[in-house]
Write a structure and sequence with these properties.
single chain
């Protein structure tokens, strides 16, 4: 299905350029698609299907969040330093979601093992920003 960018802009007032608008629509479409697949996988594969779909949705959402931070920086809404910390915050938020998912899917011992790796990842990102690379 194709529709005119001008038609869309007449419905929704936005300052986004064509590339940013395309990116936003693509991310929204991917999130909607993954959400529908999650619902469908629940019926076909039960809890395991929902967990796999949740992980796939998280991939899309993390990318969208990091891209939003980068876009804000590019537009002058964030300094480079704030954008760097913003991406680390997105990474840390994603790690927390993964830790919760690990706890529900594999129990405390599994979450502890996964959490150690996630903590190392986020700590490495923070140390890189603090001490420079």
């Amino acid at each position: 299905m194709q529709f005119s960018e001008n038609w869309l802009r007449s419905l929704v007032g936005t300052d986004l350029d064509s590339q940013a608008l395309s990116h936003a629509l693509t991310m929204a479409g991917l999130i909607a698609l993954m959400s529908m697949l999650a619902a469908a996988s629940r019926h076909g594969y039960g809890e395991a299907g929902v967990l796999v779909a949740a992980v796939c949705v998280a991939w899309v959402e993390v990318h969208a969040a990091a891209a939003s931070v980068a876009q804000l920086m590019h537009a002058g809404g964030l300094s480079l330093e704030a954008a760097r910390w913003g991406v680390v915050a997105v990474l840390a938020s994603s790690a927390m979601a993964k830790l919760v998912l690990a706890g529900f899917s594999g129990g405390r011992s599994y979450a502890t093992a996964v959490g150690a790796g996630l903590l190392a990842m986020v700590t490495g990102a923070v140390l890189t920003l603090v001490f420079g690379a």
